[in-house]
Amino acid sequence: MTKQVFEGLKVVDFTWVAVGPQVCRELAQHGATVVRVETHRRPCPMRAFAPFKDGVPGVNRSAFHTAYNTNKYSMSLDLTNPKAQEVARRLVAWADIIGDSMTPGTMDKLGLDYESCRRINPSVIYFSTTQQGQYGPHRDFQGIGHHVNALAGFSDCTGWPDSDPTMVFPAYSDFISPWYLLIAVTGALLRRRKTGEGMYIEQAQLEAGVTFLAPHVLDYMVNNRVVTRSGNRDRYMSPHGVYPCSGADRWVAIAVTNEKEWQRFCDVIGDPDWAGDPKFNSVIGRKENEDELDGLIGEWTKNYTPEQVMTILQDAGVPAGVVQTGEDLLNDPQLKHRQHFRVLDHLEIGPHSYHAPAYRLSQTPCDIKSPGPCLGQHNEYVYKEILGFSDDEIADMLVEGVITTDADVATTT
To answer: I need a surface site. Which of 8, 13, 141, 316 has the fewest CB within 10 A?
Structure first.
């Protein structure tokens, strides 16, 4: 097989939940050896996120968790145990890259902050991602991506004009932040290739999220205009919305971006009498009468399936797309053709669909070979083959609680 772009790199993944694990997953899927450090005494919160296999919770049954940790090795290590320090030092000395997503100060207390790691391994690249950064008045803020959604302004501008601010369904910043980090890590690797020097990369997820509202921030600074909640509507396009179709809870999204597309839309739907009404002849008029217009369009779309509406409009050059469900996505012919979903056999979940990377490298393709691991699944391999501990040393660490086991989950939950 063609050598992968990150092949040969060694990564210690001290991260948890969503942002850090995604960065390390991308490195793993493109060839890096990634060891995820976990403990049964305080499992990654994502292991407790639904959906679970058969609806039964368990540290190894979360589809959410396993999707963000493909191709990784999992070792169990209680970093709060004083005797874990030797293990941690060996990990640091072995690593090219270290990832941390703990609350500021946590890794310092464990002796695993960047400065401590650099003394052991001067060329190490260390990335840290937190809610609001390692310094500043709010550095100790604890939360998850949903809290950053609110702080970054997403909740205030999401929802209907007559509704309260809406919690954005996903932890949106959690799916923005990883890509900034991945680019920074790649840049640090290129620099190290030239200089031999390591680097500390520090990220505030709040700042990553705010960048996606840049046009609205600039609009306020220049025009003193605050973005408001507008449902599915757009400031400059009309019609622009989601419309009901034939079938149970089936919908289609339509966005008319200019007058040429509006005329094409009218032609496609049979040029009904209302389409020629002067109040719909311009985008200004359509915006002023948008409630009425959306109702009229919905009366047309409900006679067709969303697939039919999408095909009819796209063939005429009008942007439209089916509002797909999870089931639709797994059966989508385009995603199937591009092999976006890969089926892997998880130890507890069984056969399960996983996302391939959302990009393709022509010369160094990804290789998704293993599902997200069970907690501590690769202890023997990591402790013996990577870190060089003997069987007797491993046995002692098990007895002393340095290496945690499934029994520790039962006694702490």
So the answer is: 8
